[in-house]
Amino acid sequence: MTKIIEIHEKILAENQIEAAALREQLSLSHTVLINVMASPGAGKTTLLERTIEGLRSRYRFAVVEADLDSTVDADKISALGIPAVQIETGGFCHVESFMTNAALGELDLPSLDVVFLENVGNLICPSQFDTGAHVSVAILSVPEGDDKPLKYPIMFRAVEAVVVNKMDYLAVTDFDVSAVRKRIAVLNEDAPVIPLSCRTGGGLDGWIEWIIGRIESVRSSFPEVS
Amino acid sequence: MTKIIEIHEKILAENQIEAAALREQLSLSHTVLINVMASPGAGKTTLLERTIEGLRSRYRFAVVEADLDSTVDADKISALGIPAVQIETGGFCHVESFMTNAALGELDLPSLDVVFLENVGNLICPSQFDTGAHVSVAILSVPEGDDKPLKYPIMFRAVEAVVVNKMDYLAVTDFDVSAVRKRIAVLNEDAPVIPLSCRTGGGLDGWIEWIIGRIESVRSSFPEVS
Fold first, then answer.
1. Which residue of A has its CA nearest to B7?
2. Is there a contact between B123 and A40 if contact means CB atoms under 8 Å apart?
3. Which of A68, A73, A154 is facing B68, going by the closest CB pair?
4. What is the DSSP code (8-state) at residue A123?
5. Residue B29: CB partners within 8 Å, gap ≥ 6?
6. Residues of chain B neighbouring A67 (CB-CB closer than 8 A)
7. Which of B4, B68, B172 is closest, CB to CB, to A172?
8. How far is the C-alpha of A140 from the C-alpha of A170, rounded, in Å?
9. Which of A67, A159, B164, B222 could form a disulfide with B195 if both were Cys (CB 3.0 to 4.6 A apart)?
10. Nearest to B211 by CA among B140, B114, B119, B101
């Protein structure tokens, strides 16, 4: 066990250095990278589709899709006419910065304002690895249950905001939004909790407003073009 | 990357040896170990509650609960009056056989017919590690979407049966049960797909029948008591 932990810590430390270098490189090309994490089926791809539809007149987007071995999600993004790069992780359960780096190498960064990284569908491992992103968010979907912040605290501590998706399911569950807000506040007091439904569109305006604010805040930190 | 893969393969190989030894030990004490895997919120604990309620007059049960750092699930099982042992995995995203072994050390195996291992809520990593169980099953819940076998094929290959839970959500989704059956059949042609709703109880009889069959089949392979 000790040996496993030592190896794990070494991998984490190396990843952290690579991630910081990647973030620096992105900042130099004035591209904001946003890492989106969630359980399988929480609605990561759909939230990206809605966000891109809402903001494509404002920003030039691309998406990096991480998947074990399918291109289901990348195909959906490509259908929007947006550049999509697929990371096939094989058995890998999360994205590390060397993977992000390889994927971004296939994109023309200076021509992009915002790249979304759709992480592997997993509420655990992705939260432990810096991907090189400027911003990380998590999605929790109503059918997963309101106890998830209690059971996966590392994820809810690792992000800047939590989207609660599939609010259209609320009537057929005992999901308690105020309980989720309290549980997340204990872990991460500054993280806004943004309830919405990608299916009905309800609440999407709150998310769009928040993400524009974060994108603009990151952009304002970029070095001036000389 | 190569180094990571080498370490990973060594861990897998050592785990496999320990898992086989554990399975042998369980067989000697005539205890069937069943590993239940799924995404967060797919209904693992609830399926175990329903199964134990339905079969507690027939078998003596215990449950090993793996969770990052809460006892939410173990508390639910204890409330049934069933022995529950908690593995707090910390950041660990899956159960390996050394963890199962430690947890089983807290149970009186000869007095137990069936132990359920509720694995960490994760559709990826748990599928790659033999826990020492005799039987492994996966749960896919309707709100997660019918594309999950395409995106997490390793899990759907690693199990003997797939429970499709939350069938009471079917009317409010575009989930296609026949598509799921076909996608799973491609990966794992012998695995039955068992649709049910833990909430309404619909379909539970099919699961109960299947699991009794598997428990009895494993028991028939146990060595005679001398």
1. A7
2. yes
3. A154
4. S
5. B109, B110
6. 151
7. B172
8. 13
9. B164
10. B114
CA distance B78 to chain A (A): 17
* Residue pLDDT, tens place only, B138-148: 999 999 999 99
Contact residues on chain A for B125, CB-CB shorter than 8 A:
93, 122, 124-125
Q: In this structure, what token pair is assigned to residue B175?
A: 């989930």
In DSSP notation, B210-223 reads HHHHHHHHHHHTSP
B57-88, pLDDT tens digit by residue? 999 999 999 977 678 888 999 999 999 999 87
Q: How far is residue B86 CA from its own chain's centroid? A: 15
The angle, 0 to 180 degrees and rounded to 10, between the axes of the packed helices A2-28 and A97-104 is 30
**Token digits for B128?**
């790659």
pTM for this prediction: 0.88
| Chain B residues whose beta carbon lies within 8 Å of the beta carbon of residue A120 | 124
Please name the residues in contact with B154: beta carbons below 8 A apart, sequence gap of 6 or more: A68, A91, B124, B127, B128
Q: By the 8 A CB rule, do B42 and B140 touch? A: yes
**B141 contacts in chain A (CB < 8 Å):** 41, 143
For residues B114 and B59, the answer to whether their CB atoms sit within 8 Å is yes
Q: Count the neighbouring beta carbons within 10 Å of the beta carbon of residue A138.
A: 31
Strands (E), B27-113: 32-38, 61-67, 84-88
Within 10 angstroms of residue B201's Cβ, the number of other Cβ atoms is 12
What tokens were used for B122?
A: 């994760």
